[in-house]
Amino acid sequence: MSYQEFLKEFDKKLASYFEVQKDYICCRCWCSECCEQGDYPISQIELEYLMQGFAELSLDMKRLVQENFKHFQSGGACPFLIDKKCSVYNYRPIICRVHGLAYLCRDNIVKVPYCVNTGKNFSSVYNDGQISIEPIKENLDTAPVLKNMPYGEIRNLADWLVDL
Ligand code: SF4
Ligand code: SF4
Q1: Considering the entire predicted model, what is its pTM?
Q2: Number of domains the chain is built from
Q3: Which range of residues forms the domain containing residue 117?
Q4: Which of 51, 77, 108, 142 has the fewest Cβ atoms nearer than 10 Å?
Q5: Please, how many CA atoms are within 13 Å of residue 104, restricted to the half-sphere of its CB?
Q6: Is the beta carbon of 95 within 6 A of some atom in ligand 1?
């Protein structure tokens, strides 16, 4: 199965997960808080796909992203974030696709988006590190999600970009 075919199936599954948790999720297109700290871990296969998205951008948009590449550093805004929107949305990595959900990850820890602490997703059902609703019972971290794909090394985006 190609990575693209895999993503088609994965996105369908994610849509059903977002539907299940929709009452606790308030992501809106004008919110880009999570992308403003966009140095996320991604695998080689995701990086290649992301760069395919970059290659398909208009010249003007490419210039803006390239300018961001120059200033990008760990902890900073993702260089693909332009005017508070993801310029490579259809090509975004797994971590961006699953972000917003509450799910069960390694060692039965429930992962919630960091914005739970800024009054956004799940904040009505989250208190003192505990969530009072059922999390999605699948580990949606990158490595387990991609376990059947030849995904290569995983590095933070800033570390990949120094080699480009
Ligand atoms: S996950 Fe949180 S920070 Fe990110 S877009 Fe949704 S509401 Fe905003
Ligand atoms: S790739 Fe897109 S969705 Fe992911 S952090 Fe960057 S701007 Fe946000």
Answers
A1: 0.94
A2: 1
A3: 3-161
A4: 108
A5: 8
A6: no
